[in-house]
Write a structure and sequence with these properties.
This protein is α+β, with helices and mostly antiparallel strands. The protein has 19 helices and 13 strands. Strands 7-8-11-10-9 form a five-stranded mixed β-sheet. The chain has a three-stranded antiparallel β-sheet with strand order 1-3-2. A three-stranded antiparallel β-sheet has the order 4-6-5.
């Protein structure tokens, strides 16, 4: 029996060792699998980031923003999945495939592309310093303005660049100056004074795209406090005039558009007036909307308050222009108890009917925009000013709604603090607008979005309407927006 006991003990000890060995092997296998998964995630993240900086270098903010709207999740989440504890800048610095010059991230071995006119920028610096200055001082000033050295942008040593340039000349030892050029004769043409906002050149001569004071000064010119109160009073008078002569049982009036949302600028004021009318049927709007608009137009033409104002009949609204520049669209909608009831009616009648209910959703859209911080609204107005300075083809002009949502998204993702950074981030996003995929969850769940929309690109969902892509390719061609955002500076 003693021999049997020893045999059993030896067998038990052997089994324990085998179990321990198997446990360690399993543990090592799990660790190996985890490391393998993380390595795959790191490799995928590097590939994704490389694609984003393939064509042009980006700041870390811009790169994070581009990653978020292309892949639907933040770059910080991707780093966590890959088991990386560093921030984006630290991660990129540790990858040989990337290089970082002047605060911008690009592919290693490539000179980061910048939309900077070196001749123009160097000329400005020299003109501000009497036409000549030391090469070292000029290079230092250049880096302060652009966060990148003159050598990295030109691919040459400063002295070599100035020596080969037709615009600059080396004077003595270590001093550079401007090359004197003959003045051209210019014809001065007298014009009538214009009420149009001052042009870029007149308002912003000598500004750079990183001059924060220039952005704020421009904003004060295009949207000062007196301007805001003036357009609000104008809208109030129109509402009063229409209400006095209107034969309908008006429950309430929703004030929307750029004026109602508080994002209008001088020379580009628009408003949506939605009259919520008791007794209007919710079904068959396509049958009664146009006859109703014709009747209201006929009544308004008899109003003394609106004499001289031409009222135009459009597909789903009445349009008028007052004070030569304030554009107003008037729509009429049945009364709904709330946002959820409106969406339920759209679902009941089919997503294709959602255009008829846009007016009923204007209150929520106005609230979504108007509740944004003052800094965000400033960016919205600056983007609208930039849009008005460009020439657009039919279907290519970005709407107020597109620009407002771009600004909101950029501020939510990057919180840039300064306006020049906010505008730069917006331009970066718009450069690749055809890849945009932006959805919101303020008024509805993500799974409530109409499924066919999810396949569209660009996809910029309305924050209040799960059946509407604000940038639908059938209504907006983003090609010109991308080209202008990539090739133009904000101030010229």
């Amino acid at each position: 029996s003693l021999g049997a006991f020893r045999a059993i003990s030896k067998l038990s000890e052997l089994s324990s060792r085998q179990l321990s060995t198997q446990f360690q092997d399993c543990s090592q296998t799990r660790d190996s699998d985890s490391m393998c998964t993380q390595n795959v995630e790191v490799t995928k993240l590097v590939e994704d980031l490389s694609q984003l900086v393939k064509d042009r270098s980006l700041t870390s903010d811009e790169l994070g923003l581009m990653y978020a709207f292309k892949h639907g999740s933040s770059v910080n989440e991707a780093l966590r999945r890959a088991g990386v504890e560093e921030k984006l800048e630290g991660f990129v610095s540790g990858q040989k495939v990337f290089s970082k010059v002047g605060g911008r991230i690009g592919l290693a071995g490539e000179v980061p592309s910048r939309d900077v006119d070196v001749v123009r920028e160097v000329t400005k610096i020299l003109e501000a310093n009497g036409g000549q200055m030391g090469v070292a001082s000029l290079c230092s000033r250049f880096i302060q303005m652009h966060e990148e050295s003159l050598s990295s942008m030109t691919g040459k040593r400063p002295a070599e660049y100035f020596e080969e340039s037709d615009d600059f000349r080396l004077i003595g030892r270590g001093v550079v100056g401007l090359v004197a050029k003959p003045k051209r004769e210019s014809a001065v043409e007298e014009t009538e004074p214009s009420t149009k906002p001052a042009s870029k050149v007149a308002v912003l001569a000598g500004c750079t795209d990183r001059d924060e004071e220039a952005y704020l000064a421009l904003h004060e010119k295009i949207a000062g406090r007196s301007f805001g109160s003036g357009v609000a009073r104008c809208l109030q008078s129109i509402v009063k005039a229409v209400s006095e002569v209107c034969f309908l049982n008006v429950h309430s009036v929703i004030r929307g558009g750029s004026i109602g949302r508080g994002t209008a600028i001088t020379g580009c004021e628009s408003a949506e007036l939605i009259f919520m009318v008791e007794g209007l049927p919710r079904q068959g709007q396509e049958k009664w909307v146009r006859p109703l608009l014709k009747s209201v137009k006929a009544v308004l033409s008899l109003s003394d308050s609106l004499k001289g104002v031409e009222v135009e009949l459009r597909d789903e609204s009445l349009h008028m222009v007052v004070q030569d520049c304030v554009s107003i669209n008037m729509k009429f909608s049945p009364v709904f108890e709330g946002h959820s009831e409106t969406l339920a009616e759209i679902e009941k009648q089919g997503p294709c009917s959602q255009k008829l209910f846009v007016g009923a959703l204007e209150r929520e859209m106005t609230q979504f925009v108007s509740k944004q911080r003052g800094q965000v609204k400033t960016t919205m107005r600056l983007l609208k000013w930039w849009r008005e300075e460009q020439e657009w083809s039919v279907m290519c002009r970005p709407s107020d709604e597109v620009l407002d949502l771009v600004a909101i998204y950029v501020w939510q993702r990057t919180n840039p603090v300064e306006q020049w950074k906010a505008v730069a981030n917006c331009m970066t996003l718009m450069c690749r607008f055809d890849e945009v995929r932006i959805v919101w969850t303020n008024y509805y769940r993500k799974d409530a979005i109409w499924k066919p929309l999810l396949a569209q690109r660009p996809l910029l969902m309305s924050p209040v309407n799960p059946y509407k892509n604000v940038a639908a390719p059938t209504e907006f061609d983003c090609s010109e927006l991308m080209a202008k955002a990539a090739s133009t500076h904000f101030f010229w």
